[in-house]
Design a protein that fits this description.
Distance between the termini of chain A: 57 Å
CATH class of the largest domain in chain A: Alpha Beta
Oligomer: homodimer
Largest sheet of chain A: 7 strands, mixed
CATH superfamily of the largest domain in chain A: Nucleoside Triphosphate Pyrophosphohydrolase
CATH architecture of the largest domain in chain A: Alpha-Beta Complex
Largest interface: A-B, 32 and 32 residues
Helix content of chain A: 25-40%
Number of strands of chain A: 11
DNA sequence: CTTATTTGCGTTTATTTCACGCAAAAGTAA
DNA sequence: TTACTTTTGCGTGAAATAAACGCAAATAAG
């Protein structure tokens, strides 16, 4: 047995942070998975994650994992649940604080071990290691809830986007279909969108308007207690 | 130094579960706090909580704490956030999985050390130990969110209650005022209330109707995707 | 005895959804 | 080319919902 330097009077579980990384390719939601190279669950896919260092918070740990895999330092990262089933890891007792991250696919660079990392669409998720299928289900549910209260969707879109892209994003996350015209009206009436370019003179009917997220206006609305309703 | 039997190759934080226990006395929300008898934060008030055993989940640990303080085995307990700031406990690195519990005050018995336990109203919370003020703020916010989607409010009321009690509960949690008549209409139209007693013949105008929560009807509605809106 | 409060059960009006219409430009297939 | 479909911007009316408020009976409080 190797050296065991850290001793306690009572048993301590290991604590890890996992990071479910969501991206959006203009049509559907994607999830970044890593193929495990070692036992247990060798060959199975899993979320980026690792042991929390003794001088970092769980969120900092999750951000570290995110950066290792995507190169992104700034991103929307939020903790959503802590999984503590007794036998969720066969090696030792491991409690994991699960997070999700929202990233713009265009800004993602291949990470350290890009060879074993891949983006998967919602309907092509392979067999996952540990209890990661349960973690994914919970992450998706939390995403659905959050997008109705906070404009987190914009974290997944490029700076400038079209109304159709925005609608595709909402439809992908909520797994529903909206009437295009109603979605258009509702979003504009909310006032959290700004026209990115003043629509060129040569604009044809099929050249869509470009928008960007208006954070200032959103902050105003939020104070008055409001809600992105769908 | 005492015996240190449990050794690991890397440092492991301690993991605790805390339990913010909410009750409702017919007018306002109450929180159960325990006065600490030992350092650190001796004399300060804190939520029931303790170290997670190696063979129990965080929720089981929270339920154990709940039962020790209230005698209640069955209650609505939900995890809401894990706090992992590096210095939140001066003794050692402690990560806590925070839960809230909803209990009926009438069913609560004094716990093991009832002497040091007390119910506090929302506006008379004393100075709290550790980062428990932050934990309380987060618990209240989560409660506000949840009550708009799930009928968790009924966990706080007695089996049979009046419409006014129900409204007081919603107003206390959401910290708003409703028009009595609109609240009445909305709740009845939802269909999740059942009349508890068929309203006696000698009922005067000031004898309020008694209701109970109709779980079956709620299950129906939930399937169709619905929402307690306020 | 007078006044204020509580309860049940409405109605009216404003606001918000929701379903759908329409025309212009541009791509698609014959 | 021609005919057809798709995409986009911008409306509009009907239906549903939320919000404001009326009223009378019973009774508790002063």
């Amino acid at each position: 047995m190797s050296e065991q330097h850290y001793c306690y009077k009572y048993p301590h579980p290991a604590v890890t942070a996992d990071c479910v990384i969501f991206g959006f390719d203009g049509t559907g939601i994607k999830v970044l998975l890593i193929q495990r190279g070692i036992e247990p669950y060798k060959g199975k896919w899993a979320f980026p994650g690792g042991f929390m260092k003794i001088d970092e918070t769980a969120e900092e740990c999750a951000r570290r994992e995110l950066e290792e895999e995507t190169g992104l330092k700034e991103a929307c990262v939020e903790q959503f649940y802590t999984f503590s089933d007794v036998n969720r890891d066969p090696r030792e007792r491991v409690v994991t604080v699960a997070h999700y991250a929202l990233v713009r696919l265009s800004e993602v660079k291949g990470g350290d071990d890009a060879a074993s990392a891949r983006w998967f669409a919602h309907d092509e998720i392979p067999a996952l290691a540990f209890d990661h299928d349960r973690i994914l289900r919970m992450a998706m549910n939390r995403l659905k809830e959050r997008i109705c209260f906070e404009p987190i969707g914009f974290e997944l879109l490029p700076e400038v986007f079209t109304m159709t892209e925005l609608q595709n994003l909402y439809e992908a996350i909520l797994e529903v279909k909206f009437d295009r015209r109603n979605f258009y009206n509702k979003m504009l009436k909310l006032g959290i969108l700004a026209e990115a370019e003043p629509r060129p003179a040569n604009a044809s009917r099929r050249t869509p308007n470009k928008y960007r997220f208006n954070a200032g206006k959103y902050a105003e609305l939020k104070q008055k207690g409001f809600r992105l309703e769908f």
